[in-house]
Specification:
Blueprint: H1 2-19, E1 23-29, H2 48-55, E2 58-60, E3 63-64, H3 70-79, E4 95-96, H4 103-109, E5 113-118, E6 125-126, E7 129-130, E8 139-140, E9 143-144, H5 163-173, E10 180-185, H6 197-200, H7 218-247, E11 254-260, H8 275-278, E12 282-285, E13 294-296, E14 300-301, H9 305-312, H10 327-331, E15 344-349, E16 357-358, E17 361-362, E18 368-373, E19 376-381, H11 403-409, H12 418-425, E20 431-435, H13 453-469, H14 481-484, H15 490-497, H16 504-512
Parallel strand pairs: 1-10, 1-11, 2-13, 3-14, 4-6, 5-10
Antiparallel strand pairs: 2-12, 6-7, 8-9, 11-12, 15-18, 16-17, 18-19, 19-20
Helix pairs in contact: 5-7
Protein backbone atom coordinates (compact mmCIF):
# COMPACT_ATOMS: atom_id res chain seq x y z
CA UNK A 1 0.00 0.00 0.00
CA UNK A 2 2.84 2.37 0.83
CA UNK A 3 4.38 1.74 -2.59
CA UNK A 4 1.03 2.38 -4.33
CA UNK A 5 0.45 5.55 -2.30
CA UNK A 6 3.98 6.75 -3.09
CA UNK A 7 3.42 6.07 -6.79
CA UNK A 8 0.09 7.95 -6.78
CA UNK A 9 1.64 10.92 -4.99
CA UNK A 10 4.48 10.91 -7.51
CA UNK A 11 2.03 10.89 -10.43
CA UNK A 12 0.05 13.72 -8.83
CA UNK A 13 3.18 15.80 -8.27
CA UNK A 14 4.32 15.19 -11.85
CA UNK A 15 0.91 16.10 -13.30
CA UNK A 16 0.87 19.27 -11.18
CA UNK A 17 4.30 20.22 -12.50
CA UNK A 18 3.11 19.58 -16.08
CA UNK A 19 0.05 21.78 -15.48
CA UNK A 20 2.39 24.67 -14.71
CA UNK A 21 4.34 24.18 -17.93
CA UNK A 22 3.24 26.04 -21.04
CA UNK A 23 2.55 24.55 -24.42
CA UNK A 24 5.26 25.38 -26.96
CA UNK A 25 4.57 26.19 -30.60
CA UNK A 26 7.76 26.74 -32.57
CA UNK A 27 7.18 28.13 -36.08
CA UNK A 28 10.11 28.26 -38.49
CA UNK A 29 10.35 29.44 -42.10
CA UNK A 30 12.67 27.89 -44.65
CA UNK A 31 14.86 30.69 -46.10
CA UNK A 32 13.17 33.93 -44.97
CA UNK A 33 15.31 37.02 -44.39
CA UNK A 34 14.88 39.15 -41.28
CA UNK A 35 14.32 42.32 -43.31
CA UNK A 36 11.38 40.68 -45.08
CA UNK A 37 9.09 41.22 -42.07
CA UNK A 38 7.14 44.34 -41.25
CA UNK A 39 8.27 44.29 -37.63
CA UNK A 40 11.84 44.79 -38.93
CA UNK A 41 10.89 47.52 -41.39
CA UNK A 42 9.89 45.62 -44.56
CA UNK A 43 7.79 47.74 -46.91
CA UNK A 44 7.01 45.49 -49.89
CA UNK A 45 6.28 42.29 -47.92
CA UNK A 46 3.16 42.19 -45.74
CA UNK A 47 3.47 40.05 -42.59
CA UNK A 48 0.59 41.02 -40.27
CA UNK A 49 0.65 37.81 -38.22
CA UNK A 50 4.37 37.87 -37.48
CA UNK A 51 3.96 41.55 -36.67
CA UNK A 52 1.07 40.72 -34.32
CA UNK A 53 3.36 38.39 -32.38
CA UNK A 54 5.86 41.25 -32.10
CA UNK A 55 3.18 43.67 -30.94
CA UNK A 56 1.77 41.28 -28.35
CA UNK A 57 5.11 39.80 -27.32
CA UNK A 58 8.84 40.44 -27.55
CA UNK A 59 10.86 41.13 -30.70
CA UNK A 60 14.56 40.24 -30.72
CA UNK A 61 16.73 42.50 -32.87
CA UNK A 62 19.97 40.54 -32.44
CA UNK A 63 19.01 36.93 -33.12
CA UNK A 64 21.46 34.75 -35.07
CA UNK A 65 21.54 31.23 -36.49
CA UNK A 66 25.22 30.33 -35.85
CA UNK A 67 25.54 28.59 -39.26
CA UNK A 68 23.44 29.92 -42.18
CA UNK A 69 22.25 26.75 -43.92
CA UNK A 70 19.21 24.55 -43.22
CA UNK A 71 20.63 21.34 -41.74
CA UNK A 72 23.39 22.85 -39.56
CA UNK A 73 21.20 25.74 -38.35
CA UNK A 74 18.39 23.37 -37.37
CA UNK A 75 20.85 21.02 -35.69
CA UNK A 76 21.98 23.91 -33.49
CA UNK A 77 18.36 24.67 -32.59
CA UNK A 78 17.57 21.10 -31.63
CA UNK A 79 20.75 20.15 -29.78
CA UNK A 80 21.68 23.37 -28.00
CA UNK A 81 25.23 23.10 -29.36
CA UNK A 82 27.36 25.39 -31.48
CA UNK A 83 27.76 24.16 -35.02
CA UNK A 84 31.49 23.33 -34.79
CA UNK A 85 30.71 21.21 -31.72
CA UNK A 86 28.38 18.99 -33.75
CA UNK A 87 30.96 17.04 -35.75
CA UNK A 88 29.24 15.84 -38.96
CA UNK A 89 26.19 18.02 -38.29
CA UNK A 90 28.26 21.18 -38.84
CA UNK A 91 27.96 20.30 -42.53
CA UNK A 92 24.91 20.50 -44.76
CA UNK A 93 23.34 17.23 -45.95
CA UNK A 94 25.10 15.09 -43.35
CA UNK A 95 24.57 11.55 -42.13
CA UNK A 96 23.42 12.60 -38.66
CA UNK A 97 24.46 10.57 -35.63
CA UNK A 98 21.75 9.53 -33.18
CA UNK A 99 24.06 10.23 -30.26
CA UNK A 100 22.86 13.83 -30.08
CA UNK A 101 20.02 14.72 -27.74
CA UNK A 102 17.20 16.80 -29.23
CA UNK A 103 15.05 19.03 -27.05
CA UNK A 104 11.67 17.78 -28.41
CA UNK A 105 12.54 14.23 -27.38
CA UNK A 106 13.71 15.41 -23.96
CA UNK A 107 10.39 17.20 -23.49
CA UNK A 108 8.53 14.07 -24.53
CA UNK A 109 10.38 12.04 -21.91
CA UNK A 110 9.23 14.60 -19.34
CA UNK A 111 5.57 14.34 -20.24
CA UNK A 112 5.10 16.64 -23.24
CA UNK A 113 3.08 15.56 -26.26
CA UNK A 114 5.41 16.18 -29.16
CA UNK A 115 5.26 16.40 -32.94
CA UNK A 116 6.01 18.41 -36.06
CA UNK A 117 4.68 19.22 -39.50
CA UNK A 118 6.38 20.35 -42.70
CA UNK A 119 10.14 20.62 -42.53
CA UNK A 120 11.84 19.54 -39.33
CA UNK A 121 15.55 18.87 -39.22
CA UNK A 122 17.08 18.37 -42.64
CA UNK A 123 18.12 17.85 -45.30
CA UNK A 124 20.13 14.83 -44.30
CA UNK A 125 20.02 11.19 -43.28
CA UNK A 126 18.99 10.21 -39.77
CA UNK A 127 18.67 6.62 -38.57
CA UNK A 128 19.25 5.47 -42.13
CA UNK A 129 16.41 7.55 -43.61
CA UNK A 130 16.31 10.54 -45.89
CA UNK A 131 14.29 12.84 -43.63
CA UNK A 132 13.13 14.97 -46.55
CA UNK A 133 11.27 11.92 -47.89
CA UNK A 134 9.31 11.43 -44.66
CA UNK A 135 5.58 10.84 -44.96
CA UNK A 136 2.88 10.07 -42.45
CA UNK A 137 4.07 9.38 -38.93
CA UNK A 138 7.82 8.95 -39.44
CA UNK A 139 10.06 10.45 -36.79
CA UNK A 140 12.52 13.31 -37.15
CA UNK A 141 14.81 15.02 -34.63
CA UNK A 142 12.06 17.69 -34.50
CA UNK A 143 9.41 15.15 -33.46
CA UNK A 144 6.77 12.70 -34.68
CA UNK A 145 5.54 13.74 -38.10
CA UNK A 146 2.03 15.00 -38.85
CA UNK A 147 2.23 15.47 -42.61
CA UNK A 148 -0.77 13.68 -44.09
CA UNK A 149 -2.98 16.70 -44.84
CA UNK A 150 -2.62 18.62 -48.10
CA UNK A 151 -4.41 21.51 -49.76
CA UNK A 152 -4.67 23.48 -52.98
CA UNK A 153 -2.15 26.32 -53.28
CA UNK A 154 -2.16 29.48 -55.41
CA UNK A 155 1.27 29.08 -57.02
CA UNK A 156 3.37 26.11 -58.14
CA UNK A 157 6.33 26.95 -55.92
CA UNK A 158 4.28 26.67 -52.72
CA UNK A 159 4.20 23.27 -51.01
CA UNK A 160 0.80 21.58 -50.74
CA UNK A 161 1.26 20.62 -47.08
CA UNK A 162 -1.69 21.89 -45.03
CA UNK A 163 0.27 22.97 -41.99
CA UNK A 164 -2.65 24.14 -39.86
CA UNK A 165 -4.73 21.02 -40.61
CA UNK A 166 -1.79 18.87 -39.56
CA UNK A 167 -1.43 20.97 -36.41
CA UNK A 168 -5.14 20.38 -35.73
CA UNK A 169 -4.64 16.63 -36.15
CA UNK A 170 -1.81 16.83 -33.63
CA UNK A 171 -4.00 18.70 -31.13
CA UNK A 172 -6.82 16.18 -31.65
CA UNK A 173 -4.44 13.32 -30.89
CA UNK A 174 -3.04 14.66 -27.63
CA UNK A 175 -4.23 13.98 -24.12
CA UNK A 176 -5.62 17.37 -22.97
CA UNK A 177 -3.94 16.84 -19.59
CA UNK A 178 -0.53 16.96 -21.26
CA UNK A 179 1.27 20.11 -22.43
CA UNK A 180 2.39 20.00 -26.04
CA UNK A 181 5.54 20.84 -27.96
CA UNK A 182 4.94 21.32 -31.69
CA UNK A 183 7.35 22.31 -34.46
CA UNK A 184 5.60 23.92 -37.42
CA UNK A 185 8.16 24.15 -40.20
CA UNK A 186 6.96 25.66 -43.45
CA UNK A 187 8.80 24.80 -46.65
CA UNK A 188 8.40 28.38 -47.82
CA UNK A 189 10.00 30.60 -49.02
CA UNK A 190 12.48 27.94 -50.15
CA UNK A 191 12.92 27.72 -53.91
CA UNK A 192 11.75 27.10 -56.50
CA UNK A 193 9.16 29.76 -57.16
CA UNK A 194 6.62 29.99 -59.92
CA UNK A 195 8.37 32.57 -62.06
CA UNK A 196 6.54 35.88 -62.36
CA UNK A 197 3.88 34.88 -59.86
CA UNK A 198 4.07 38.54 -58.83
CA UNK A 199 2.33 39.41 -62.10
CA UNK A 200 -0.59 37.10 -61.33
CA UNK A 201 -0.76 38.64 -57.88
CA UNK A 202 -0.96 42.16 -59.32
CA UNK A 203 2.17 43.49 -57.64
CA UNK A 204 4.16 46.56 -58.59
CA UNK A 205 7.90 46.07 -59.05
CA UNK A 206 8.44 49.71 -58.15
CA UNK A 207 7.62 48.78 -54.54
CA UNK A 208 10.45 46.24 -54.27
CA UNK A 209 13.58 47.20 -52.32
CA UNK A 210 16.84 45.90 -53.84
CA UNK A 211 19.85 45.31 -51.59
CA UNK A 212 23.14 47.11 -52.19
CA UNK A 213 24.88 43.91 -53.31
CA UNK A 214 22.62 43.48 -56.39
CA UNK A 215 22.13 45.54 -59.54
CA UNK A 216 18.72 47.18 -59.62
CA UNK A 217 16.83 45.82 -62.61
CA UNK A 218 13.57 44.10 -63.54
CA UNK A 219 15.05 40.60 -63.27
CA UNK A 220 16.19 41.08 -59.68
CA UNK A 221 13.03 42.95 -58.69
CA UNK A 222 10.82 40.24 -60.20
CA UNK A 223 12.71 37.52 -58.35
CA UNK A 224 12.39 39.41 -55.07
CA UNK A 225 8.67 39.95 -55.68
CA UNK A 226 8.14 36.22 -56.28
CA UNK A 227 10.02 35.54 -53.06
CA UNK A 228 7.83 38.03 -51.17
CA UNK A 229 4.71 36.05 -52.06
CA UNK A 230 6.14 32.96 -50.35
CA UNK A 231 7.20 34.90 -47.27
CA UNK A 232 3.62 36.06 -47.01
CA UNK A 233 2.47 32.42 -47.32
CA UNK A 234 4.64 31.60 -44.31
CA UNK A 235 3.06 34.49 -42.47
CA UNK A 236 -0.41 33.16 -43.28
CA UNK A 237 0.54 29.88 -41.60
CA UNK A 238 1.42 31.80 -38.46
CA UNK A 239 -2.03 33.39 -38.55
CA UNK A 240 -3.77 30.04 -39.09
CA UNK A 241 -1.93 28.50 -36.14
CA UNK A 242 -2.82 31.42 -33.86
CA UNK A 243 -6.47 31.17 -34.91
CA UNK A 244 -6.48 27.45 -34.13
CA UNK A 245 -5.12 28.09 -30.65
CA UNK A 246 -7.70 30.82 -30.07
CA UNK A 247 -10.54 28.54 -31.16
CA UNK A 248 -9.38 25.83 -28.78
CA UNK A 249 -8.84 28.14 -25.84
CA UNK A 250 -5.10 27.45 -25.77
CA UNK A 251 -3.62 30.81 -26.75
CA UNK A 252 -2.87 31.98 -23.20
CA UNK A 253 -1.33 28.59 -22.33
CA UNK A 254 1.08 28.60 -25.26
CA UNK A 255 4.49 30.14 -25.85
CA UNK A 256 4.68 30.90 -29.58
CA UNK A 257 8.05 31.48 -31.20
CA UNK A 258 8.38 32.42 -34.87
CA UNK A 259 11.68 32.59 -36.74
CA UNK A 260 13.54 31.45 -39.88
CA UNK A 261 16.54 29.18 -40.30
CA UNK A 262 18.52 31.74 -42.35
CA UNK A 263 18.19 34.39 -45.00
CA UNK A 264 16.56 34.25 -48.41
CA UNK A 265 17.70 31.79 -51.12
CA UNK A 266 19.60 34.36 -53.15
CA UNK A 267 23.29 34.90 -53.95
CA UNK A 268 25.39 36.32 -51.09
CA UNK A 269 22.65 35.57 -48.56
CA UNK A 270 21.74 31.93 -47.94
CA UNK A 271 24.77 29.98 -46.77
CA UNK A 272 27.01 33.04 -46.52
CA UNK A 273 28.57 34.81 -43.53
CA UNK A 274 27.04 38.21 -44.15
CA UNK A 275 24.34 39.92 -42.13
CA UNK A 276 21.33 38.95 -44.20
CA UNK A 277 22.39 35.31 -44.23
CA UNK A 278 22.79 34.73 -40.50
CA UNK A 279 20.81 37.49 -38.74
CA UNK A 280 17.34 36.07 -38.47
CA UNK A 281 13.82 37.18 -37.47
CA UNK A 282 12.86 36.05 -33.98
CA UNK A 283 9.73 36.87 -32.02
CA UNK A 284 8.04 35.30 -28.99
CA UNK A 285 4.53 35.73 -27.61
CA UNK A 286 2.98 34.16 -24.51
CA UNK A 287 -0.26 36.03 -24.03
CA UNK A 288 -0.72 37.20 -20.46
CA UNK A 289 2.79 36.17 -19.42
CA UNK A 290 5.33 37.85 -21.73
CA UNK A 291 5.04 41.63 -21.44
CA UNK A 292 3.93 42.88 -24.87
CA UNK A 293 5.47 45.48 -27.18
CA UNK A 294 9.00 44.83 -25.98
CA UNK A 295 12.06 45.05 -28.23
CA UNK A 296 15.18 43.34 -26.87
CA UNK A 297 18.68 43.90 -28.26
CA UNK A 298 20.48 41.16 -26.32
CA UNK A 299 22.34 38.76 -28.61
CA UNK A 300 20.78 35.31 -28.80
CA UNK A 301 21.75 32.42 -31.07
CA UNK A 302 20.20 29.15 -32.18
CA UNK A 303 22.22 27.04 -29.70
CA UNK A 304 20.45 29.04 -26.96
CA UNK A 305 16.94 27.88 -27.88
CA UNK A 306 17.02 24.33 -26.48
CA UNK A 307 18.40 25.32 -23.04
CA UNK A 308 15.85 28.16 -22.92
CA UNK A 309 12.91 25.84 -23.49
CA UNK A 310 14.21 23.36 -20.92
CA UNK A 311 14.77 26.22 -18.47
CA UNK A 312 11.22 27.40 -19.09
CA UNK A 313 9.81 23.94 -18.41
CA UNK A 314 12.00 23.37 -15.32
CA UNK A 315 13.91 20.50 -16.91
CA UNK A 316 17.65 20.23 -16.34
CA UNK A 317 19.54 20.68 -19.60
CA UNK A 318 21.95 17.83 -20.43
CA UNK A 319 25.67 18.53 -20.31
CA UNK A 320 25.67 18.30 -24.10
CA UNK A 321 24.03 21.73 -24.38
CA UNK A 322 26.51 24.59 -24.54
CA UNK A 323 24.10 27.37 -25.46
CA UNK A 324 22.87 29.78 -22.78
CA UNK A 325 19.23 30.19 -21.78
CA UNK A 326 17.62 33.54 -22.61
CA UNK A 327 14.60 32.96 -20.38
CA UNK A 328 15.49 36.16 -18.50
CA UNK A 329 15.17 38.12 -21.74
CA UNK A 330 11.81 36.51 -22.51
CA UNK A 331 10.34 37.23 -19.08
CA UNK A 332 11.83 40.65 -18.39
CA UNK A 333 9.55 43.68 -18.26
CA UNK A 334 12.20 45.84 -19.94
CA UNK A 335 13.23 46.56 -23.49
CA UNK A 336 16.71 47.28 -24.84
CA UNK A 337 19.79 45.50 -23.53
CA UNK A 338 18.77 43.33 -20.57
CA UNK A 339 22.17 41.69 -19.96
CA UNK A 340 25.20 43.76 -20.95
CA UNK A 341 27.30 40.60 -21.36
CA UNK A 342 25.11 39.43 -24.26
CA UNK A 343 26.82 41.83 -26.65
CA UNK A 344 28.13 39.55 -29.41
CA UNK A 345 27.72 36.21 -31.13
CA UNK A 346 29.91 33.66 -32.92
CA UNK A 347 29.23 32.34 -36.41
CA UNK A 348 30.74 29.79 -38.73
CA UNK A 349 30.42 27.33 -41.57
CA UNK A 350 32.18 24.36 -43.08
CA UNK A 351 30.88 22.37 -46.07
CA UNK A 352 27.46 23.40 -47.24
CA UNK A 353 27.16 21.81 -50.66
CA UNK A 354 29.02 19.64 -53.13
CA UNK A 355 31.05 20.98 -56.04
CA UNK A 356 34.16 22.39 -54.36
CA UNK A 357 37.44 20.53 -54.93
CA UNK A 358 40.94 21.07 -53.61
CA UNK A 359 44.16 19.12 -54.13
CA UNK A 360 42.41 15.87 -55.03
CA UNK A 361 39.71 16.15 -52.36
CA UNK A 362 36.10 16.48 -53.47
CA UNK A 363 33.20 18.30 -51.85
CA UNK A 364 35.43 20.12 -49.41
CA UNK A 365 34.40 22.99 -47.17
CA UNK A 366 34.93 26.72 -47.25
CA UNK A 367 35.70 27.15 -43.56
CA UNK A 368 34.78 30.45 -41.94
CA UNK A 369 34.53 31.62 -38.35
CA UNK A 370 33.21 35.04 -37.46
CA UNK A 371 32.27 37.29 -34.59
CA UNK A 372 29.48 39.86 -34.74
CA UNK A 373 28.92 42.57 -32.12
CA UNK A 374 26.84 45.74 -32.10
CA UNK A 375 29.20 47.56 -34.44
CA UNK A 376 31.29 45.12 -36.48
CA UNK A 377 31.40 41.80 -38.27
CA UNK A 378 34.83 40.18 -38.41
CA UNK A 379 35.21 37.04 -40.55
CA UNK A 380 38.21 34.72 -40.73
CA UNK A 381 38.31 32.74 -44.00
CA UNK A 382 40.74 29.92 -43.20
CA UNK A 383 41.33 28.69 -46.76
CA UNK A 384 40.82 31.69 -49.07
CA UNK A 385 42.29 29.89 -52.09
CA UNK A 386 39.08 27.85 -52.27
CA UNK A 387 35.97 29.08 -54.06
CA UNK A 388 33.55 30.25 -51.34
CA UNK A 389 30.37 29.36 -53.22
CA UNK A 390 31.78 26.28 -54.96
CA UNK A 391 33.90 25.83 -58.07
CA UNK A 392 32.73 27.59 -61.27
CA UNK A 393 32.98 24.39 -63.34
CA UNK A 394 30.40 22.75 -61.07
CA UNK A 395 27.97 25.66 -61.11
CA UNK A 396 28.54 27.48 -57.80
CA UNK A 397 26.49 24.89 -55.92
CA UNK A 398 26.23 26.81 -52.65
CA UNK A 399 23.74 29.19 -54.22
CA UNK A 400 20.25 28.02 -55.22
CA UNK A 401 19.32 28.29 -58.87
CA UNK A 402 17.32 31.44 -59.59
CA UNK A 403 16.83 34.26 -62.08
CA UNK A 404 19.12 36.38 -59.89
CA UNK A 405 21.88 33.76 -59.95
CA UNK A 406 21.53 33.32 -63.72
CA UNK A 407 21.70 37.05 -64.33
CA UNK A 408 24.86 37.46 -62.24
CA UNK A 409 26.72 34.39 -63.52
CA UNK A 410 26.02 35.29 -67.15
CA UNK A 411 27.53 38.78 -66.84
CA UNK A 412 30.59 39.53 -68.98
CA UNK A 413 33.67 40.89 -67.16
CA UNK A 414 33.36 44.04 -69.25
CA UNK A 415 29.84 44.72 -67.98
CA UNK A 416 29.58 47.54 -65.39
CA UNK A 417 27.47 45.20 -63.24
CA UNK A 418 30.20 42.54 -63.13
CA UNK A 419 31.24 43.80 -59.70
CA UNK A 420 28.01 42.31 -58.35
CA UNK A 421 29.00 38.90 -59.70
CA UNK A 422 32.39 39.17 -58.00
CA UNK A 423 31.04 40.00 -54.55
CA UNK A 424 28.59 37.08 -54.75
CA UNK A 425 30.70 34.40 -56.41
CA UNK A 426 34.33 35.52 -56.45
CA UNK A 427 37.09 34.46 -54.10
CA UNK A 428 37.36 36.17 -50.73
CA UNK A 429 40.33 37.44 -48.73
CA UNK A 430 41.73 35.86 -45.58
CA UNK A 431 39.98 38.43 -43.40
CA UNK A 432 36.85 40.55 -43.74
CA UNK A 433 35.72 43.40 -41.49
CA UNK A 434 32.48 45.33 -41.89
CA UNK A 435 31.05 48.34 -40.09
CA UNK A 436 27.53 46.92 -39.84
CA UNK A 437 26.03 50.15 -38.52
CA UNK A 438 27.00 52.13 -41.61
CA UNK A 439 27.30 49.20 -44.04
CA UNK A 440 24.49 46.74 -43.15
CA UNK A 441 24.79 44.95 -46.49
CA UNK A 442 28.49 44.23 -45.84
CA UNK A 443 29.92 45.46 -49.14
CA UNK A 444 32.85 47.61 -47.93
CA UNK A 445 35.58 45.39 -46.48
CA UNK A 446 37.71 47.36 -43.98
CA UNK A 447 40.13 44.54 -43.13
CA UNK A 448 43.07 46.18 -44.90
CA UNK A 449 42.31 49.68 -43.67
CA UNK A 450 45.04 50.70 -41.16
CA UNK A 451 42.52 52.76 -39.20
CA UNK A 452 40.73 49.54 -38.21
CA UNK A 453 43.79 47.38 -37.51
CA UNK A 454 43.38 47.42 -33.72
CA UNK A 455 39.66 46.65 -33.93
CA UNK A 456 40.35 43.76 -36.30
CA UNK A 457 43.06 42.30 -34.07
CA UNK A 458 40.93 42.61 -30.96
CA UNK A 459 38.00 40.85 -32.62
CA UNK A 460 40.20 38.02 -33.91
CA UNK A 461 41.71 37.49 -30.46
CA UNK A 462 38.26 37.34 -28.89
CA UNK A 463 36.97 34.99 -31.58
CA UNK A 464 39.97 32.67 -31.37
CA UNK A 465 39.88 32.57 -27.57
CA UNK A 466 36.19 31.68 -27.41
CA UNK A 467 36.49 29.05 -30.13
CA UNK A 468 39.40 27.39 -28.34
CA UNK A 469 37.33 27.31 -25.16
CA UNK A 470 34.54 25.60 -27.13
CA UNK A 471 36.92 23.00 -28.55
CA UNK A 472 36.44 24.00 -32.19
CA UNK A 473 38.52 21.58 -34.31
CA UNK A 474 39.15 24.29 -36.92
CA UNK A 475 41.12 26.57 -34.58
CA UNK A 476 42.78 23.59 -32.90
CA UNK A 477 44.41 22.50 -36.15
CA UNK A 478 42.04 19.56 -36.71
CA UNK A 479 39.57 21.19 -39.07
CA UNK A 480 40.37 18.93 -42.02
CA UNK A 481 37.93 16.38 -40.58
CA UNK A 482 35.01 18.54 -41.80
CA UNK A 483 36.16 17.86 -45.38
CA UNK A 484 35.89 14.13 -44.79
CA UNK A 485 32.51 13.81 -43.06
CA UNK A 486 30.38 12.09 -45.74
CA UNK A 487 27.79 14.03 -47.68
CA UNK A 488 24.78 11.72 -47.85
CA UNK A 489 23.99 12.60 -51.51
CA UNK A 490 26.25 9.91 -52.95
CA UNK A 491 24.58 9.64 -56.34
CA UNK A 492 24.63 13.42 -56.88
CA UNK A 493 28.33 13.45 -56.01
CA UNK A 494 29.10 10.57 -58.35
CA UNK A 495 27.28 12.20 -61.24
CA UNK A 496 28.84 15.58 -60.61
CA UNK A 497 32.38 14.21 -60.54
CA UNK A 498 31.70 11.53 -63.17
CA UNK A 499 32.98 8.83 -60.83
CA UNK A 500 30.50 5.96 -60.23
CA UNK A 501 32.77 4.34 -57.63
CA UNK A 502 33.25 7.35 -55.35
CA UNK A 503 32.44 6.35 -51.76
CA UNK A 504 32.74 9.13 -49.16
CA UNK A 505 31.98 6.81 -46.23
CA UNK A 506 34.84 4.51 -47.18
CA UNK A 507 37.17 7.49 -47.63
CA UNK A 508 36.25 8.79 -44.17
CA UNK A 509 36.69 5.39 -42.51
CA UNK A 510 40.07 4.85 -44.14
CA UNK A 511 41.32 8.10 -42.60
CA UNK A 512 39.45 8.30 -39.29
CA UNK A 513 38.04 4.84 -38.65
CA UNK A 514 34.41 3.87 -38.17
Amino acid sequence: MKQILSLLLGIFALSTAFAERPNILFIIADDASRNSFGAYGAKYVETPHFDRLADEGVLFTNAYNNNPKCAPARACLLTGRYSWQLEEACNHNPILSDKWEFYPWILEEQGYFMGFTGKGWGPGTWKGRDVNADKGQNDNPAGHAYNTRTREVPYKGINKIDYSANFADFLDARNPDKPFCFWLGTKEPHRGYEKDSWMKDGRNLADVVVQDFYPDNATIRGDLADYAIEVEWYDQQIGAAIKLLEERGQLENTLIIATSDHGMPFPRVKGQIYDEGYRIPFVAMWKGTIVPQRVVSDFITFPDLAPTLLDLTKIDAPDQMTGASFLTQLMSTDSGRIDESRNHTLLGKERHDIGRVDNGLRSVSFPVRAIRNDSFLYSHNFLPHRWPVGNPEYGYKNTDGSPTKSFLTELDPSDPDYKYFEISFGKRPFEELYDVLNDPHCVNNLADNPSYAKIKERLWQQLESELIAQGDPRVLGQGEIFDYYPNRKWEDNRKLYNDPTWNPVKIFEEKYGK
